[in-house]
Structure formats: C-alpha cells, structure tokens
Amino acid sequence: IARYKEQAQLDQLTNTLNRFGFYEAFNRVTHQSINHNFLYAVMIVDIDKLKLFNDQKGHQYGDVVIKNTAKGLLKGLRTEDILARWGGDEFIIVLTNIFSENHVEKLSQRLAQCVEEYSISQDTPISISYGLAISKTHGETLDDLIGFADQMMYEQKKLK
Fold first, then answer.
1. Beta strand pairing call for 39-47 and 90-98
2. Cα distance between residue 41 and residue 132, in whole Å
3. CA 48 vs CA 34, 128, 157, 159: distances in Å
4. Model confidence at 33, in pLDDT bands (50, 70, 90)?
5. Chain-centre distance of CA 136, in angstroms?
6. Is the overall model pTM greater than 0.85, yes or no?
7. In 58-89, which positions are buried (b, 16+ CB within 10 angstroms) versus exposed (e)?
C-alpha cells in the first residue's frame, strides 16, 4: 500500500512530487511553520521557451528539457524544501525556514543558476522564469501565495 501511495504522489516524467503529493507535503510544512514559527516561500517556476523547443526539436526533446529542469532544481534545493511538477512546464517549490525576503531571493537565484548550469552540462541549455511569494507577507492561504507568485513569474517572463 505504501508503494502505491508513493507512486500516486510522483510525477512519472520527473520523479518529483505531483499535485497530490505536493498538497500532502505542503500541509506538513504549514503545521511545522505554525509550531516552530518560521516563514516559508512559494516559488512558481516556468521553463522559458519550451513551446519553441517542442516545435523545433520535438516533444521527446521537450521531455528531456523538463527532466533536466527538475534535476537542476533538485541540485539547488535544500533537503527540507519541496519540489513538485505543477503541470506542463511549470514547477512549484516551497522554500522552508525562510529568514527574510533577501534570503528567499538568494535561494531563488541559486536555483535558476543550478538549472542553467545543469541544463548546459546536459546539452539542453535553458533558462527559467520564476515568481516568489512569502507566507504572511504576500498572502495567508496557499491560493493567495500561488496567485502572487504566478503574477510575479509572468512579470519576469515579460522582461525576457
């Protein structure tokens, strides 16, 4: 039963959490943040120009790009953070134990750099756009935080 539950919570392409697994992990983080009084941040990540890659090189190449993005993100995440494939070419990350907005920005920049470096090493050079929302600062609920982070991600995408 435990094996089936684990399989039901994983995205088959990236081997990261799927939405179902994400919600369960997120609930644990919110309980811990209340009990231990720490902040967390929600980060929405989108792969830049994936449609163009799919159109030019095919969907199999696009799948490799998605896998390499997940691997790059995992290289930059701390063990206590959460990574899930949110859908298509989007990922959602929860950065736990956040001290300040500056701390979150440094972590997110490191993640973007890890994705870039890993994807170049795998001969699938890509970049990501992302938006961040910090608990209590940008919203109280997960929906609020996702909405704010999503809006920030689209603002960043417009600048590219």
1. antiparallel
2. 7
3. 35, 5, 8, 12
4. confident
5. 20
6. yes
7. eeeebebbbbbbbbbbbebbeeebbbbbbeeb
